[in-house]
Amino acid sequence: MADKQTDHTATDLEEIHEERARAHGRHPSAKEYVRIFLILGAITAVEVALYYMRDDLGSWFIPMLFGLAVTKFALVVLWFMHLKFDDRRFSRFFMMGLAGAATLYLIVLLSFRTFSDRTP
Amino acid sequence: MADVAVAKGHDEHQTTTGLPHAKLAMWLFLSSECLLFGALITTYVLYRGASIEGPYPADVFDIAYTSVSSFVLLASSLTMVLALAAAQKRDFTRMRLWLLATAMLGMTFVGGQVYEFTAFYNEGLSVTKNLFGTTFFVLTGFHGVHVTVGILMLLSLTGLSFADRLPEDPAFPVEMVGLYWHFVDIVWIIIFTVVYLIPTGPVPK
Hints:
The complex is a heterodimer of chains A (120) and B (205). Chain A is mostly helical and 120 residues long. Chain A contains 5 helices and no strands. Chain A has 2 domains: 28-84; 86-115. Helix content of chain A is 72%, strand content 0%. Chain B is mostly helical.
């Protein structure tokens, strides 16, 4: 298999990577990716632990869960999807849909009084 | 140096924005997907606790099992970024290895979901049984379909790499598929919290 993509010299590759770093900002190293993954795994473990302790946590249970979910969401989007490092216009494109969806559906849920007591 | 010129040509992106339009389009697509999954999650929340007959969430959910599934999907996000890191270093062997690992983890997740759906069905929960069944199967089913599409994209990418048919900059298609894959992961982060960890009814034994 003659790999047409492997015929760069080391200097050429360095030049390419430097050019990319200038164009898109740096991307995290493999070690950083593993670190983020370990944090995500730990947060998931905490979420599951909270689930089993939810009777003791009372009204704190749902806000704590949402806080952890938002943290995981942000870690994946910022590090794994590189929004922290890439051009800000990509973030704006994504936030447009995310914020739009969050606003729209929050209004829908509030309109239907979803968060008020609906004892059957 | 001709290769460098071609590779640089990609980075300079001869576009009106100076950014790769394919990547902008991918972010726009993911942005629109927020509306799709937002609608499905909202519908689930809207009808939470509104079923007039069982099975109810607390009757069927196995949180320990779903936690492992969630962890598998998180692990697939790690292997996906490692594939991208390898592609950026033009280390094709590792890139293919990590892409295949990501696809395998994705298949494990989908297999787990199929098992879970079958178990729920055997316990009497179907898409037409009650509001919980309808909203749950539609939401998680749509997510499962997205994961399956992602697996096909990963396998296609690996196949193209083996056939030496990836473009001059292999990191670009890997990054595009990766964005889609991570999006599927973040959707599951929300589903895991909203659907599984905040159920109605008592804590199952």
